[in-house]
Input
Amino acid sequence: MNTTNSPDTPCYPLIGISACSQHSDGEHPIFTFGEKYSRAVSEGAGGLPVAIPALGAGLPLQQLVERLDGLLLTGSPSNIEPHHYRDEGSEPGTAHDPKRDATTLPLIRAAVAAGVPVLGICRGFQEMNVAMGGTLYQKLHTTGRFREHREDKTTTLDQRYTTGHDIRIQPGGRLAQIWPQSETVYVNSLHEQGVRDLAPGLRVEAVAEDGLVEAFSLIDAPAFTLAVQWHPEWQWHPCHDVGDFPFYRALLGAFGEACAQRARARGVSRQANGMASPQ
Ligand SMILES: N[C@@H](CCC(=O)NCCCC(=O)O)C(=O)O
Output
């Protein structure tokens, strides 16, 4: 990213990154996301990353989405509370993050309606389905219908984020446009939950060999709206020599281009109103 300011400095799209709610030192409530997500936004999508704290109803959503050029929904070990998709309670001890749910679910609906490009990753993928009215399997491995989609926690981080399974990209969709090179692609897999019923208005973009939905888009969304169950942001993990994943780069690149388009459009309309272009 060019960090100098001159009249020729490009206008980087402002991309919000959803944060989780946690406690630092067990006492202070904090909002967090991994550095790899920030780098995926700045280096992969060419955007200016900004944190979206999990403030729930305390966030003026309409004002927020009007300022954003993109929204990246991160992964998280925590699971969406099942009442959001009309299911019974989860097993005792399941990690949840009600503050994040209260933020991301309405934020997704507001962003889609405002034409903000959205990319959902893993928990973010599941949030997009739930926000639009879909449901989840709480534990894929207990259904007897699917292969193992969880990571092997006894292996190294590199192994966990490079081991997975093939997906099949559906012809004619958004993902096939982004990645026309091959219909089958190998992706990582680190989740226990998955799509049960796809929300109305969503289109399957990729499936695993066992039939599980691995990617979807919104059919009538005014802007780029894609969600993936795997972790393309691994490409930008700062602490590891992760190698090169052209498929992951292509995904973030396409998202970044959609965000840049929105930034340009917002700049044009500001000039038309006699306002300065966004910096
Ligand atoms: N908890 C959900 C979603 C899994 C997920 O998003 N994992 C991410 C792990 C941390 C990271 O890489 O950001 C499930 O288990 O299905």
Observations:
- The helical segments are 35-44, 61-67, 98-114, 123-131, 157-162, 174-178, 246-272.
